[in-house]
């Protein structure tokens, strides 16, 4: 059967991940058992949430063990199958491991079949037409309950999820303000149709900048950052505003010293709903979400942003670059 390539956790990162935290290795090719199927990775997803899996602390999945393959979302092609529902040639995405071949079953978390449309590059089904788009849709509409005419603020707005949130909010008729970390990223989101862009590194008072472009206040905050960013934005929320907490990338590299948000009283003052979410807890809306994402791409209202690397061995450096804030759009590795 040959060998399978793996990216292992060589040591737990201290702060920002570095190449020495990872190890490229080989193992025996896995053999599918009853009901299982062997998948060849075609697109590996690089996500900020992976940073939380590398620490030895509780999360919504078990932490990665030292010497074990990194966990992450992957899109692949079935190359051997003992499951009639997933014959050879089927494209699937699921939460898997950083291996160029891996086993799945019908019970695998996040498992979905992928139906590639002609003219659409496969990697987009791990981005705006995949988990990224579904996460943006669920957080914005199922959790944040964004409605036409409302004002939406999104942090990390030039990233994978943030850039998608802004575009689909505009597609639904919302006013959108994006917060980014450079002048170049401001240009990116303006080009995507955001109504306003704020460079948090260049302004000492984010709330004042929001007030300039949204004096009426904020109805929905899509939070990818947490910490000081969340603290600054809560006072800008309107009565009965909603905060959809997708991630807290501002703390992933220093989870031992979480930032204490001092403005949580605003939740009471303005009766704000603040809720964290995991996309696949919302299975009942994913078909609608996928349909609308496909439609918006077809109409040109959603332009997928992708930062694509090539080759299985590129996964660790792609992840390091993502966590260092050096990327725009969805970071993906094509195999």
UniProtKB/TrEMBL annotation:
One of its GO terms (molecular function) is oxidoreductase activity, acting on the CH-CH group of donors, NAD or NADP as acceptor. SUPFAM superfamilies: GroES-like, NAD(P)-binding Rossmann-fold domains. Residues 17-333 form the Enoyl reductase (ER) domain. Keywords: Oxidoreductase. It holds the Pfam family ADH_zinc_N. InterPro entries: ADH-like_C (IPR013149), ADH_N_2 (IPR041694), ER (IPR020843), GroES-like_sf (IPR011032), MDR_fam (IPR045010), NAD(P)-bd_dom_sf (IPR036291). It comes from the Bacteria. This is Alcohol dehydrogenase.
């Amino acid at each position: 059967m040959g060998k399978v390539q793996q990216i292992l956790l060589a040591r737990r990162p201290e702060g920002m991940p570095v190449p020495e935290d990872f190890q490229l290795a080989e193992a025996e090719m896995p053999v599918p058992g009853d009901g299982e199927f062997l998948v060849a990775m075609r697109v590996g997803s690089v996500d900020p949430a992976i940073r939380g899996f590398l620490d030895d602390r509780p999360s919504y999945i078990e932490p990665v063990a030292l010497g074990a393959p990194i966990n992450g979302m992957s899109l692949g092609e079935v190359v051997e199958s003992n499951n009639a529902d997933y014959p050879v040639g089927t494209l699937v995405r699921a939460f898997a491991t950083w291996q160029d071949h891996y086993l799945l079953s019908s019970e695998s978390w996040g498992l979905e079949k992928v139906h590639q449309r002609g003219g659409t590059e496969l990697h987009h089904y791990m981005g705006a037409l995949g988990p990224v788009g579904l996460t943006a849709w669920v957080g914005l509409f199922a959790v944040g309950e964004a409605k036409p005419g409302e004002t939406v603020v999104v942090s990390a707005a030039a990233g994978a999820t943030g850039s998608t949130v802004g575009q689909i909010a505009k597609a639904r008729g919302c006013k959108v303000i994006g917060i980014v970390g450079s002048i170049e990223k401001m240009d990116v989101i303006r080009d995507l149709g955001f109504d306003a862009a704020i460079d948090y590194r260049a302004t000492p008072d984010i709330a004042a900048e929001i007030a300039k472009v949204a004096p009426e206040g904020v109805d929905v905050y899509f939070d990818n950052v947490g910490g000081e960013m969340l603290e600054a934005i809560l006072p800008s929320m309107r009565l009965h505003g909603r905060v959809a907490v997708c991630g807290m990338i501002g703390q992933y590299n220093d989870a031992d010293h979480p930032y204490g948000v001092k403005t949580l009283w605003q939740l009471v003052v303005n009766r704000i709903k603040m809720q964290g979410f995991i996309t696949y807890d919302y299975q009942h809306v994913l078909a609608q979400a996928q349909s609308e994402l496909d439609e918006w791409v077809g109409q040109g209202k959603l332009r997928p942003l992708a930062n694509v690397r090539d080759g299985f061995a590129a996964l660790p450096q792609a992840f390091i670059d993502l966590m260092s804030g050096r990327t725009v759009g969805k970071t993906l590795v094509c195999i």
